[in-house]
Each structure stands twice: as structure tokens, then as C-alpha cells.
């Protein structure tokens, strides 16, 4: 396993100052934790994560204005590598894991419980920096007591359905209980690119780009599907396809 070259940058998000302080003290006892920053609201957390890009975030669930889930939704593709929810309420645990949280700490928690969460966080970060990582070849889809295996290369596109994702394979659609952000991480080096905040396309399944009547572009897939490209992701998509921004052509 590859070793990390720097200490883990960490952000603690909680609207209760005492809760933040207690967690920061415990985190400071771990020699692998680097600079610890803190935020007292979800709005502050979104701004801090976008500018500081921490490795690890401890995120409270219930906060005024934006709760922990709002924070992750607003961040979209900018969600940090590791998120651990911290809350006094157990009813949000399932939803937390569905949006990609690594762990779920219930207040009050012991030092040993925090250490177990940190061990998992370190392993996740180490795995993500391991240069021997190989993208998976297939995804496991569970439904109605059955398990199906979907070859990643056969997926045309993936779209988000709240905390679920829909895999479009030819004329079939498979629903997986993972958010689009989580799936994007699982795909790793697989040839997928965003064309919208809620849509990924398999670049190997793209036949071309089509100019629409309103001046925007649509991706044309080999399946015949046409998917609108958001302006936010158009330039990145064209670069990924090797297409001139001023002269989109069929592949």
C-alpha cells in the first residue's frame, strides 16, 4: 500500500462550539492528523471545503440553514475524499451511508471509537493514492433478492435519482443504491465524464456532439440516446473527447 507524503488535512463542522472543541482535542492526539480547521455552519463548510480541499471532514447532521446532507449536495463533485458524519441522532445513519459517508459517529463517542473511524479514514486515503489501483471491470447490482453483474464497458450513461443511480445499458436500466458521487469514485480510472451535475457518460459510447436549436450541445451515444450537455461541463467534455470547442465533430 502506498504511503501518504503529508499529514491529513482535516475540517470539523459543527454548530456547537463545545462539540467542535472536544473533537479537535481528540484529533490532535493523532500524529497523522495535520492542520485542523473548523466551521460553525453548513454555509461556512461549503466555502471552506471548496477553497481548502481537506482530505477528511467530520460533518454534523443537524445545523441551521444547511444541514450535513445539504452541504454534500451543494458540493456535488467537490465532496472531500473522506466524510464522517457526527451526530446525536441515529435515524440518519442509513441516509449517511447512501450519500457516501465512510463512518457515522454517535455523540457522545469514546476516543477508541474515534480511533477506529480514523483508521478507516487513513485506509481509504491510502487506497486512493495507491498507484497500483485498477478500475473495476463490473458493478454489482442487487434487487429483489437477486445479484446481477453489469460490465462497466457496456454502460452507456448513468444518471442520478436522489441517493440512487440508474445505469443505462442498451435498452435496460439498473438501479443501484449509491449516489452518483460515490459511483464516480468507484469507477476510478474508467472512461466516464460528467456532462451534467446529475449525469455521467461513458466516453467510449459517445458517437458525437450535436448542436441543438438553442445553441447548446447534446451528446449522441451509440445507443441513439441524446443527452443535453450542461455549459458547466461542456469544455471539459470536449477536451476529454479531443474536440475543438469551436468545431465539434462526430467521433
Task: Write up what this structure looks like.
The chain has 2 domains: 8-129, Rossmann fold, CATH 3.40.50.2300; 138-241, LytTr DNA-binding domain (OB fold (Dihydrolipoamide Acetyltransferase, E2P)), CATH 2.40.50.1020. With 251 residues, the chain is an alpha/beta fold. It contains 7 helices and 15 strands. Helix 3 links the parallel strand 3 and strand 4 (82-87). Strands 2-1-3-4-5 form a 5-stranded parallel β-sheet. A 5-stranded antiparallel β-sheet has the order 10-9-8-12-11. It has helices at 17-27, 42-52, 68-75, 93-98, 111-129, 180-187, 231-241; strands at residues 8-13, 33-39, 56-60, 82-87, 103-106, 138-143, 146-151, 157-161, 164-169, 172-176, 192-196, 199-202, 206-211, 217-221, 226-228.
Beta-strand level of the residues, as a percent range? 25-35%
What is the helical fraction, as a range of percent? 25-40%
Low-confidence stretches: none
The domain count comes to 2
- What Rg, in angstroms, do the CA atoms define? 20 Å
Which term fits the overall shape? elongated
- Average pLDDT: 85
What name goes with the CATH superfamily of the largest domain?
A: Response regulator
CATH topology of the largest domain: Rossmann fold
* Pattern of helices and strands: EHEHEHEHEHEEEEEHEEEEEH
Count of helical stretches: 7
CATH architecture classification name of the largest domain: 3-Layer(aba) Sandwich
Beta-strand segment tally: 15
Please state how the strands of the largest beta sheet are arranged side by side.
2-1-3-4-5
Q: Report how far the terminal alpha carbons are from each other.
A: 39 Å
Structural class based on helices, strands and sheet pairing: alpha/beta
